[in-house]
């Protein structure tokens, strides 16, 4: 196995959706074959917006279950909870001291979240990308599987790494984003990114009936007003989902027949439903099994913490040395 490391994280802020799965998880799963992967349930990130502490423990467990049900193998990769390895926030502090505020103010997700929650623009929200940089470089990860909404964060991580290495000497590699084949799925509204916080999602554990209820009313190509109008697949989020879930024959068929007005949107959605369920049903079976064995999942997270901590301590030793504070640790 290559010594190259991979890090990625998902917030325990609700059930995982098909955007998370297609944009990030598929690559996270595939990379396990050739890399040493560390996957985080990033609970400190989830605290930058309103959250309910009573739900946190269960959300973390659910997130771990979703990871494993989708194909993250805890015997091969490290599955850990961010807040259990305190070096994440420690390193974030250090990186804060070399990150100009102007870099953070221009991050698109900060601007979006500030608009979504104008009553709760906290320091954590602004500082989110620095903590994310710390998450990644703490493990000296070189590859970061993510959806395309994370690209500005990754670029910032690289800038921070360059600044740290040039100020104090080389410690961190510059990580690269690895995007999914379909790197962004829009929500059922067909406008916004599919996101837990926007309630516009198809969740990994939605039943066939729930998925159909959502798909049947999901927004398609807005220019196609009537069944007899030729459609524009490239402007349709349902077609994007086809690209993520369907075989080439179905994708080609839907594109061709949509353009020729040979099929209507509902016909196209029915084909998608079948293909989506085919992929999600085995994941749902594993989710149900894992939910029966809560203790085993908790045990995996304790083990993950231990392995992650070993690497984190090693990196921080190098950081202390570069900063001239090692003598007192
Ligand atoms: P959310 O945005 O739903 O809160 P997270 O911020 O926890 O999800 O994102 C976890 C991973 O899933 C990230 O790598 C992110 O880029 C990816 N992701 C989230 N939403 C989408 C989407 N709609 N399409 C593609 N990838 C996505």
What is the secondary structure topology, with strand pairs?
Layout: E1 5-10, H1 18-31, E2 36-41, H2 43-46, H3 53-70, E3 78-81, H4 87-96, H5 101-105, H6 108-116, H7 123-137, E4 143-146, H8 151-168, E5 176-179, H9 208-217, H10 237-245, H11 248-259, H12 265-291, H13 294-323
Parallel strand pairs: 1-2, 2-3, 4-5
The structure holds adenosine-5'-diphosphate.
The site of adenosine-5'-diphosphate has 19 residues, from helix 1.
- Number of E strands: 5
The CATH architecture name of the largest domain reads: 3-Layer(aba) Sandwich
Please outline the major beta sheet: 3 strands, parallel
| Strand ordering within the main sheet | 1-2-3
Instruction: Please bin the fraction of helical residues.
Output: 55-70%
Helix-strand sequence: EHEHHEHHHHEHEHHHHH
Tally of separate helices: 13
Structural classification: mainly alpha
**Mean pLDDT value:** 95
Shape label = globular
**Which hetero ligands occur in this complex?**
adenosine-5'-diphosphate
CATH topology of the largest domain, by name, is Rossmann fold
CATH homology-level superfamily of the largest domain = HUPs
- Low-confidence segments: none
Radius of gyration from the alpha-carbon trace, in angstroms: 21 Å
Through-space gap between termini: 33 Å
CATH class placement of the largest domain: Alpha Beta
What is the count of structural domains? 2
Share in β-strands: 5-15%
């Amino acid at each position: 196995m290559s010594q190259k490391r991979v890090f990625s994280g998902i917030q325990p802020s609700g059930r995982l959706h098909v955007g998370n799965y297609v944009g990030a998880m598929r690559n996270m799963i595939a990379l396990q074959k050739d890399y040493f992967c560390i996957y985080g349930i990033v609970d400190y990130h989830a605290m930058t917006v309103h959250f309910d502490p009573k739900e946190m423990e269960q959300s973390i467990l659910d997130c771990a279950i979703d990871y494993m049900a989708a194909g993250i193998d805890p015997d091969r990769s490290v599955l850990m909870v961010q807040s259990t390895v305190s070096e994440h926030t420690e390193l974030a502090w250090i990186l804060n001291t070399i990150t100009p505020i102007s870099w953070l103010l221009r991050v698109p997700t900060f601007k979006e979240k500030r608009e979504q929650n104008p009553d709760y623009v906290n320091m954590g929200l602004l500082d989110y990308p620095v903590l994310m940089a710390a998450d990644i470089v703490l493990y000296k990860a070189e590859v970061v599987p993510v959806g395309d909404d994370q690209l500005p964060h990754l670029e910032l991580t690289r800038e921070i790494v360059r600044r740290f290495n040039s100020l104090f000497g080389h410690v961190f590699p510059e990580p690269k984003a690895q995007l999914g084949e379909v790197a962004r799925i829009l929500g059922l509204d067909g406008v916004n990114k599919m996101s837990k916080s926007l309630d516009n999602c198809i969740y990994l554990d939605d039943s066939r009936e729930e998925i159909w209820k959502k798909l049947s009313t999901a927004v398609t190509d807005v220019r196609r007003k009537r069944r007899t109008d030729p459609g524009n697949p490239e402007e349709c989020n349902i077609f994007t989902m086809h690209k993520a879930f369907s075989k080439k024959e179905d994708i080609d068929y839907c594109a061709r027949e949509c353009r020729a007005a040979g099929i209507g949107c509902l016909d196209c959605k029915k084909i998608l439903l079948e293909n989506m369920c085919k992929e999600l049903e085995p994941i749902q079976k594993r989710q149900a099994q894992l939910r029966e064995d809560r203790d085993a999942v908790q045990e995996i997270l304790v083990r993950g913490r231990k392995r992650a901590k070993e690497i984190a301590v090693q990196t921080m030793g190098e950081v202390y040395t570069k900063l001239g504070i090692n003598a007192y640790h």
